[in-house]
Write a structure and sequence with these properties.
Layout (H helix, E strand, L loop, with lengths): L3 H16 L4 H6 L5 E8 L3 E2 L3 H11 L4 E4 L6 E2 L4 E8 H31 L6 E3 L9 H10 L13 E3 L1 H7 L2 H11 L6 E5 L2 H9 L4 E5 L3 H11 L4 E5 L7 H5 L5 E3 L2 H4 L6 E9 L2 H7 L1
Parallel strand pairs: 6-11, 7-8, 8-9, 9-10, 10-11
Antiparallel strand pairs: 1-5, 1-12, 2-4, 3-5
Helix pairs in contact: 1-3, 3-4, 4-5, 8-9
Length: 290
């Protein structure tokens, strides 16, 4: 799923946004050949995700930077733990700090929240899915963070899964008409999912022999009825304002998947800080000693 070129583009865009014509403060205070060592330290507990992205940020500013990560992505960490150590250009460390932390904190926040939802489903066969409610331009990173937290990725975009939603149905007149037009015009290998909001629509979608039926904002009682009605003839996804409090009850209806938009659209960043722990010899002096 991860494409290094795409990630580099994301990183470089973020650096251009923040640094643009130059870091005025850092460049005025720090000599260009000065080195330093910094540590990334967790200020609260959670699941780490995105260390490799933070590393790329510093590497773009200083190709000679040394990165040592002490905990792998997906690791649950506690407050005070050192996540990584970075050695390199003092300017690069200070100029890249905010951008690196923005990526690492957001991705770790997504992974942490995802892990909470996944843990709530322990003992069930239901899987947590993300949605397309991601930060524009950051989808591959948001969805990587969901996977790191133990969730599953739904479609990456409008191109890899056909999802017939309420506005599509409204446009053509019915679920049946929508599915017929889709099957006549779209590649057969692409799966079809239909959004339904009541049992009548579930029956119609089932008669159309689609691959996935979404139960959108249904009551638990109707979800249970819908799952029995579908009877494994299609996969079943539950959706609609899912919270940690009701996720287990939703899973107990027998659905295969529960999609949670909040994983990425309302995430709280994990609190992580960067601290300079020592100043190092200048690059020139270091090279003269070799």
């Amino acid at each position: 799923m991860l494409n290094k070129k795409e990630i580099l583009n994301i990183v470089n865009n973020a650096l251009r946004e923040d640094i643009k014509t130059g870091d005025i403060t850092t460049n005025s205070l720090i000599p260009p050949n000065k080195k330093a060592k910094a540590k990334l330290i967790a200020k609260e507990e959670g699941v780490i995700a995105g260390g490799f992205v933070a590393k790329l940020v510093f590497q773009q500013l200083d190709p000679k930077v040394k990165w040592k990560q002490f905990v792998k992505d997906g690791t649950y960490i506690h407050k005070g733990m050192t996540i990584a150590e970075i050695t390199g250009s003092y300017r690069a460390l200070l100029s890249g700090e905010r951008t690196a932390l923005n990526f690492l904190q957001r991705m770790s926040g997504i992974a942490t929240l995802t892990r909470k939802f996944v843990n709530k489903l322990h003992g069930t066969n239901t899987k947590i899915l993300d949605t397309r409610k991601t930060a524009p331009g950051l989808r591959i990173l948001d969805k990587y963070a969901v996977k790191t937290g133990g969730g599953e990725n739904h479609r990456m975009g409008l191109y890899d899964l056909i999802m017939i939603k309420d506005n599509h149905i409204e446009a053509v007149g019915s679920i049946t008409k929508a599915v017929e037009q889709i099957k006549a015009k779209s590649p057969k290998k692409v799966k079809i999912e239909v959004e339904t909001k009541n049992l009548r629509e579930v029956k119609e979608a089932l008669n159309c022999k689609v691959d996935i039926i979404m139960l959108d904002n249904m009551s638990l009682k109707n979800m249970t009825k819908a799952v029995k009605l579908i009877n494994s003839k299609a996969l079943v996804e539950a959706s609609g304002k899912m919270t940690l409090d009701k996720i287990k009850k939703t899973a107990n209806t027998g659905v295969d998947f529960i999609s949670v938009g909040a994983l990425t659209h309302s995430v709280k960043a994990l609190d992580i800080g960067m601290y300079i722990v020592s100043k190092m010899p200048n690059y020139k002096k270091e090279q003269q000693q070799k």
